[in-house]
Amino acid sequence: MIGSLRGRMLDRSLSGEVLVETGGVGYRVTAGPATVARLGDLDSEVFVWTYHHIREDSQVLYGFATKVERETFEALLGAHGVGPALALAILTVHPPDALARVVAGDDIAGLCLVPGVGKKTAARLLIELKSRLDDVPTAAATSAEDGPDGGEGGSGGSVLADVRDGLTGLGYGPEEVAQATRDLEGTDAGAMLKEALKKLAGSR
């Protein structure tokens, strides 16, 4: 099982994949847009926590900027009906600490901001995740373990660009992304992404 990678980033797609070369081997790692943006620039040395998902017909490495993100991903996978794609989508909309607040507050509407999650699914997940997230430490408590530089990545462009990339990674098309980010302002990518998702939900 591959738990982490350190090496040179040969390629990246802000829609969800990086190529990390270590020991002369290039590893394709699937990650959320925010993680891709935080890892750093092309040709720079990067460190990424990984979850090695093995099936009979495929193997996929999922990457995370921090250890707590990976642990939250693993907790999500333990919930009924949650596969890697949905777990990654949930973390894209709600990073670990935000997800903990959503679960603690029984925020069904907040969880429904994740594409593919309806009210019934959200209600069930809130019940299941209450116990599963208890074993996941907060990001602040694990900042010293989050790899080089406390888990903070390199430059990832403007905040608005990160929001657009996040929406693209969630499967929204160019027109929807343009509509959702029109007149969007702020410096917190997570809050702006949620606001954009609310606009998209209201337009449907």
| Overall SS class | alpha+beta
Spatially, the strands of the biggest sheet line up as: 1-2-3-5-4
As residue ranges, the low-confidence spans are 140-145, 148-157
- The value of Rg in angstroms is 16 Å
Count the DSSP helices: 9
Please state the second-level CATH architecture of the largest domain.
Orthogonal Bundle
Helix percent reads 40-55%
What general form does the structure show?
A: globular
CATH topology of the largest domain: DNA polymerase, domain 1
Q: How many structurally independent domains?
A: 3
* Main pleated-sheet profile: 5 strands, mixed, barrel
CATH C-level class of the largest domain: Mainly Alpha
Element-level helix/strand string: EEEHEEHHHHHHHH
Description:
There is one protein chain. This protein is of the alpha+beta class and 204 residues long. It contains 9 helices and 5 strands, in the order βββαββαααααααα. It has 3 domains: 68 residues, OB fold (Dihydrolipoamide Acetyltransferase, E2P), CATH 2.40.50; 71 residues, DNA polymerase, domain 1, CATH 1.10.150.20; 44 residues. A 5-stranded mixed β-barrel has the order 1-2-3-5-4. The termini are far apart.
